[in-house]
Amino acid sequence: MKKEIILVAFSILFFCSCHTGKGLVAVSSPNAPKAIGPYSHAIKTGNLIYTSGQIGLSPTTGALAGDDISTQTRQALDNLKAVLQEAESDMAHVVKVTIFLKDLNDYAKVNDIYKDYFPELKPARSAVQVARLPKDALIEIECVATTN
Fold it and tell me: What contacts 24+ positions apart, CB below 8 Å, involve 13-22?
């Protein structure tokens, strides 16, 4: 009984700290493109990391890395890797990925590249077609991960 009370008390404290702004840390990576709006690259709370969507922007030029789905997918995933590294994580600790595609016909090409970034554990994933993405990108990818 005492263990259950302690567990409930801890859960309440954790929930309150996460939902009142306490325990939230903004993450910004110098190796990912600067945010193009009022948001953080990621938010870290406890051992969880919630990333903002990454498009295929080059961190050095701020422009799309290319005009094809393959180049933009690689760059978006590289940007995601950089954000996770800054948050003390990596692709092996990703638990959920959401992919936004301008054209769902690119799904197979994205999968061919995506599998190289997740060679072992395959995170849960959703992929949807959207009408438009920032900077007219072809793909945007976000994830939830745990720390190392």
Answer: 14/46, 18/45, 18/46
pLDDT of 21: 60
Instruction: List the domain boundaries for the chain.
Output: 24-146
Looking at domain 24-146, its CATH architecture is 2-Layer Sandwich (3.30)
User: pTM of the prediction?
Assistant: 0.85
pLDDT in tens, 81-105: 999 999 999 999 999 999 999 999 9
Q: What is the pLDDT of residues 6-40, one digit of tens each?
A: 433 344 344 444 454 679 999 999 999 999 899 99
Cα dist. 124→26, 66, 86, 98, 139 in Å?
24, 27, 22, 9, 18
In terms of Cα–Cα distance, which of 80, 11, 72, 76 is closest to 46?
Answer: 11
Closest C-alpha among 21, 12, 65 to residue 45: 21
Let me know how long the chain is.
148
